[in-house]
Recover the amino acids of this structure.
């Protein structure tokens, strides 16, 4: 099934920044995100090439809604799509572009039925998790490719071979898990459009420089 209407031609990002306010070293999350998006622009990434996932799973609805509203202003100013983790209601309330679904979330088909204006991203940890999703979701975050603390709960790293098999399922993929700018050529050769990251940006001493470094690698022609 292919979704139609407002999501036709939705740009798939090549860089997906995932939030973790516990990893910012006490800095306000909004300030870290604003700096990171400025770095992406400095590297030449266009609006839509970089997107933000608000993933603060410990927050209740009201607190999450406030934070989402603040980040919506930051992302709108930078031309970056905002995806809210799991909470379709919060995504709709703040005018986010999309919702990101994990393994225990609503099914993409159900979200498409109740919120057709939202783009859908999903997390996947094995190639068969992508079966049946082509044309229904905008993209998937696939991994962990390498070991990283935030993804150890999902099992051991899946590696590039699994990424290559996942890319054959027809869903645009962003690789995640212990990746740096140096890994961009390899993950692209395996079929990923780009990468997703958490601590590489959230914990960076200079989030703008960290994102610019990733952006320069992603903006470079393949080969």
């Amino acid at each position: 099934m292919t979704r139609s209407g407002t999501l036709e031609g939705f740009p798939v990002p090549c860089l997906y920044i995932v939030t973790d306010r516990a990893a910012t070293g006490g800095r306000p999350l909004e300030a870290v995100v604003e700096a990171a998006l400025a770095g992406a622009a400095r590297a030449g990434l266009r609006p839509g090439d970089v997107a933000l996932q608000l993933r603060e799973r410990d927050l209740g609805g009201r607190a999450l809604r406030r934070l989402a509203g603040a980040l919506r202003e930051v992302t709108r100013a930078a031309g970056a799509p905002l995806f809210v983790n799991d909470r379709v209601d919060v995504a709709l309330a703040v005018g986010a572009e999309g919702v990101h679904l994990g393994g225990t979330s609503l099914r993409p088909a159900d979200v498409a039925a109740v919120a057709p204006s939202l783009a859908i991203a999903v997390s996947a940890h094995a190639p068969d998790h992508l079966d049946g999703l082509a044309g229904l979701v905008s993209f998937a975050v696939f991994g962990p490719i390498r070991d990283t603390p935030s993804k150890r709960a999902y099992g051991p790293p899946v590696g590039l071979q699994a990424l290559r098999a996942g890319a054959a399922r027809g869903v645009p993929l962003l690789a995640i898990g212990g990746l740096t700018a140096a890994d961009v050529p390899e993950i692209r050769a395996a079929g990923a459009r780009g990468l997703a990251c958490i601590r590489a940006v959230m914990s960076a001493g200079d989030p703008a420089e960290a994102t610019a470094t990733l952006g320069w690698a992603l903006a470079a022609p393949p080969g």
In short: The CA atoms of residues 73 and 172 lie 27 Å apart.
